[in-house]
Amino acid sequence: MAIIGNIIKGFIEARDSLSLEKNPVEEQKKVLENLLNQAKDTLFGKHFDFKQILSSKDKSKTFAQNVPYYDYNKISTEWWNKVIDGKPDVTWPGNPDFFALSSGTTGKKSKRIPVTQDMLASIKNAGIKQIYALSNFDLPAEFFEKEIMMLGSSTDLQERNGRKEGEISGISASNIPFWFKKYYKPGDEIAQIDEWDHRVLKIAKEAKNWDIGALSGIPSWMELMLKKVIEYHNLEHIHEIWPNLQVYTSGGVAFDPYEKSFNALLGKPIQIIDTYLASEGFLAFQDRPDTSAMKLITDNGVYFEFVPFNPEYINQDGSLTDDAPSLTLDEVKEEEDYVLLISTVSGAWRYIIGDTIKFTDVKRAEIKITGRTKFFLNTVGSQLSVNKLNDAVKHLEDKLDIKIPEYTLCAKRYDDGFYHTWYLGSDSMVDSDKTAKVLDDYLKSANKNYKVARGKALEGVKVHFVPQPIFAEWSGANKKKGGQVKMERVMGEEKFAEWEDFVAQQTA
After folding, report:
1. What are the tens digits of pLDDT across the range 427-440?
2. Phi, psi of 290 (to 5 degrees)
3. Do strands 417-425 and 406-414 pair parallel, antiparallel, or not at all (unpaired)?
4. Closest by alpha carbon to 326, among 315, 341, 337?
5. Which residue spans traverse the membrane (predicted)?
6. 261, 406 in Cβ contact below 8 A?
7. pLDDT digits (tens, 9 = 90+) for 448-484
8. Domains of the chain by residue range
């Protein structure tokens, strides 16, 4: 009998049953007021007169009128570079102890995003909320005694000017509470290994000694780790070595493109739980089993705003036009795409995180990530967001009975016009012309703007199949393997030329 597991499960269920019904709109009003109060004496707070905003009748509206939108480049140039140089009380009281390094899905140069002690407390609090929500998933008591594999970036943080730097998953793992360490795998020693392939090989060697009940990490890297364990031990599937694996907490990107290839590595179905942990904060998690949407964490030091995702509001670099309207949580509508803005206890203000989302349930504040502002394919009027591209790939998987966990594309100019040129990462090699026709037909039937574009400047679709590992090697060559690194779904022509050269070298 799982005595400890029953105790833990009982506590979680009792704690959850005592939770009062929350009002996300009211919680957000309190979060904004607290953020303004805490930062009113910072350089940023004085510059934008937070005290005056706090005295206004409609704080949300006055805040939106007084403070401009910030993407990373703008807030770094005007404010965060001072923080990096060590100046205190710039956008948040004091000095941050950590900086999250993030190259995201674009660019080789790492961004440095402040991570304050208040943010670490926020992330920890969000994690506890997620644990309490497990009571909704009807997991057996034995599950709560099993170990958790957290596959993030290295916890061997680098020192720079007295502060520590690393990816947010590494920072979070290096600050896990002592009581959690008995459940945490791969453990401190392996987690500190910086080189991805070396770390994964060590995990594979030790895998037989662990009783893993849950996995946590970005799908693309989790798949590669599971494949390495299966290959190293000559297994049919991962449940042969981890028979008690029951939960996978996904995050960072939409899980849908990976669903078919991920499930192929399992011996039995497991519960998939989506999370939204970005370098800028822990923003949302799935808190019930009868949806794949995630609930925004509306009472935890992050204030959300939403800009309608219309092409006229989006600049070529993914930033917002000055006249783009912003909405609060009580103004949004379901099934419409929005650019997500956050203001946080790390001193991000009206910050364009780069993701687009849609609400599936406004009352519950439940969302799905639909794409990236920079990955909106509209070169020739086709208006395809990442969720529409993911839907098209899922259609290919079903229609052709193949697995395509990775892909990228570009609206590339040829002598006879533009073509959407796709590279599909798959172990199955199907006729490219047939695949292109299936893809083109689906996009024309599912997206009216694409169909219109096909009658004008867009000549058609070209498809190339490449082995899936090439995508990981590309990330390793351009950024770094593992951790928070994600593949670009849409590239500009210049970056795409580099990609095609890279593929040619890898397949020569």
Report:
1. 887 889 999 899 98
2. -90, 30
3. antiparallel
4. 341
5. none
6. no
7. 877 877 777 788 889 999 988 888 888 777 766 666 6
8. 1-374, 377-507
The CA distance from 13 to 143, in Å, is 14
Return d(Cα 454, Cα 461) in angstroms, integer.
10
**pLDDT tens, 208-247?**
999 999 998 888 889 989 999 999 999 999 999 999 999 9
- Outline where DSSP puts E strands in 95-253: 98-102, 111-115, 147-151, 158-160, 163-166, 184-185, 212-217, 247-251
Retrieve residue 221's tokens: 């890297």
| Location of structure tokens 């060697």 | 205
**What is the Cα–Cα distance from 129 to 451, expressed in whole angstroms?**
44
For the ranges 206-215, 284-293, 466-475, 496-505, the lowest mean pLDDT is seen at 466-475
Please tell me the distance from the alpha carbon of residue 2 to that of residue 291, in angstroms, as a whole number: 29
Residues 6+ apart with CB under 8 A from 498: none
For residue range 105-158, what is the model confidence (pLDDT) as tens digits? 444 467 899 999 999 999 988 988 888 888 888 888 888 888 999 887 777 778
Nearest to 351 by CA among 92, 88, 175, 110: 92
- Whats the size of the chain, residue-wise? 508
Write out the DSSP string of 387-422: HHHHHHHHHHHHHHT----EEEEEEEEETTEEEEEE
Max intra-chain CA distance, the chain: 70
Q: Are 436 and 463 in contact (CB under 8 A)?
A: yes
| Cα within 13 Å of Cα(310), Cβ side | 9
**CATH 3.40.50.880 holds for 1-374:** no
